[in-house]
Amino acid sequence: MLIEPKQHEECSIESQPINKNDFINKVICGDRIDVMKKMPENFVHLIITSPPYNVGISYENHNDLMPYNEYLDFLEQTWIECYRILIKGGRICINIPSITANGEYQPLFVDVVNQMRKIGYIMRGDILWYKQSISKRTAWGSWKSPSNPSLVQPYEFILVFSKEKRKLEGDKEKIDITKDEFIKFSNSFWDIKPQTKPKGHPAPFPEQLVYRLIKFYSYQENIVLDPFAGSGTVGVVALKTKRNYICIDKSEKYCKLAENYINMEKNNLFIDV
Q: CA 168, CA 213: separation in Å to the nearest integer?
């Protein structure tokens, strides 16, 4: 169900009763901070997200070319609210690249790690997501010359943190990861091709990437959130793995795309949700 948040009323969020069913298994169209502020504390078990990269991608209602410090502030406000709604022991997995801003290399993953530690998150590790071969690159800097060659980075990071403690409590009967999956997923080098579907989004999450994170870091029936939901891959994989989802995106276009993608999966699974 596609939900558009109501306009803010004069009474505070705290004074309004919170119905968790207003969020669970919904695609919610709105600003991620505004929506998360309406959620109760200690609510979500796992957050998987890939924020805009700030590299100039054309979004309908987001400036993807902010000054670098402004971009960092944009990210930090997201992590602060994510911390509030995560349960103790809950995890957040952030897909982040290294980027070049104003012609200068910015180790974004370093700045994000520093932000998270300042907020109070416990860093659990990082996953190196290998995306493509060097043959697919389009920029070499000074071709065949030592004057100014460019390094290719065919990988991105998945940074993993938890809130307050390392252990996530849960029902052992709701553990569904297999022995082979656990051994494979615990290796922090993940060779996964980028996904091309659904059409209509410039950078959809690969289902296999989300599948590994969900199976490795959550129990069945946990709540999984993506505050930058895009095409809705987190919601689709949550359904496939018997988790609950919350998908938030500012773009009405992407919310409709996510809703359609999730509904297709519901029809394929023949499940009542």
A: 14
Contacts of 51 (CB under 8 A, 6+ apart): 74, 75, 78, 94, 96, 228
Q: What is the pLDDT of residue 269?
A: 62
Q: Measured between alpha carbons, how far apart are the two ends of the chain, in Å?
A: 10
List per-block mean pLDDT (blocks of 10 residues) for the chain, which spans 273 residues.
43 54 93 95 96 70 75 94 98 86 77 96 96 62 83 88 97 97 97 72 80 98 96 94 96 90 78 35
Residues 6+ positions from 104 with CB-CB distance below 8 Å:
none
Q: Is 41 exposed, middle or buried (0-12, 13-18, 19+ CB in 10 A)?
A: exposed
Residues contacting residue 268 through CB under 8 Å, at least 6 positions apart: none
Say what the pTM is: 0.86
Measured CA to CA, the distance from residue 102 to residue 187 in angstroms comes to 35
Q: Using alpha carbons only, what angle is made at residue 189 by residues 183 and 191, rounded to the nearest 5 degrees?
A: 100
Which structural domains are found in the chain, ordered by start? 19-135+150-269 (3.40.50.150)
